[in-house]
Design a protein that fits this description.
Blueprint lengths: L6 E6 L6 H17 L2 E6 L13 H5 L9 H10 L2 E7 L7 H16 L8 E8 L6 H14 L3 E2 L11 E4 L4 H7 L1 H22 L2
Parallel strand pairs: 1-2, 1-3, 3-4, 4-5, 4-6
Helix pairs in contact: 1-6, 1-7
Bound molecules: flavin mononucleotide.
């Protein structure tokens, strides 16, 4: 925080460079062009992020996580960002294990710095192979993370982006996602609201 420009952190919770990666990048490009915001990005492709071990080192010491893996990079990005856009593929009707693991590992982040996520604005995008494959539950699970960490969850609102961005990839990766022009409207409406809310909070 503290920069003149807003900084949006986009995260793709897919283990591959395919539909979710494509959609989150497009959302960030849109935000940069329309609002001249700064963006940052993290994806799981080729990354190693272990499960939380519930060893309670973070709670006992307040020094962060005992595990040293690619989560170190994510912690820095999360602390730096003003606002966050989490994208997930839909796995078994909800978010991916990768994104859930990132959420669980944030216990160490907030144990060390209780204000790390507080009052930051968050939104989600869910990308399913099926048109109605669990995108809404995936988004609600992302919103639960925001609520638990005293963040401010937003969506694009009624008439198109009720809980956030919803994409139907038809299991055809980036190409399938790109064809979902209706879905992209929900993504862009969600980005609009994310930026609007963050600007309101920062009184820009
Ligand atoms: C383990 C697994 C479970 C999946 N479960 C669902 C599901 O419940 N609902 C759905 O719509 N698509 C499901 N899919 C399909 C993916 O959501 C879809 O292909 C999506 O575009 C993948 O995102 P990606 O291209 O960014 O990796 C599943 C895919 C995998 C690998």
């Amino acid at each position: 925080m503290g920069r003149s420009k807003l900084s949006i952190l986009g995260i793709s919770g897919s283990p591959r460079k395919a539909a979710t990666d494509f959609v989150v990048r497009k959302a960030l490009e849109y935000a940069e062009k329309k609002f001249q915001v700064e963006t940052d990005y993290f994806h799981f492709y080729g990354k190693k992020i272990n499960f939380c071990l519930h060893c309670d080192y973070c709670i006992r010491t307040r020094k962060g996580c005992i595990q040293k893996d690619d989560m170190t990079e994510v912690y820095a990005k999360l602390e730096e960002a003003d606002t966050m856009l989490f994208g997930t593929p839909v796995y078994n009707g909800t978010l991916s294990g990768q994104l859930k693991t990132l959420f669980d590992r944030c216990r160490a982040l907030v144990a060390k710095n209780p204000k790390a996520l507080k009052n930051k604005v968050g939104a989600g995008i869910a990308v399913g192979g099926d048109r109605v494959g669990g995108q809404e539950l995936a988004l609600l699970t992302i919103h639960s993370f925001f609520l638990i960490h005293k963040m401010i969850p937003v969506s694009g609102g009624a008439l198109g982006a009720n809980l956030g961005g919803i994409i139907w990839s038809k299991d055809r990766g980036a190409k399938g996602a790109e064809e979902d022009t209706e879905g992209f409207k929900s993504v862009y409406k969600t980005v609009d609201r994310l930026v609007e809310t963050t600007m309101l909070l920062r009184k820009i």
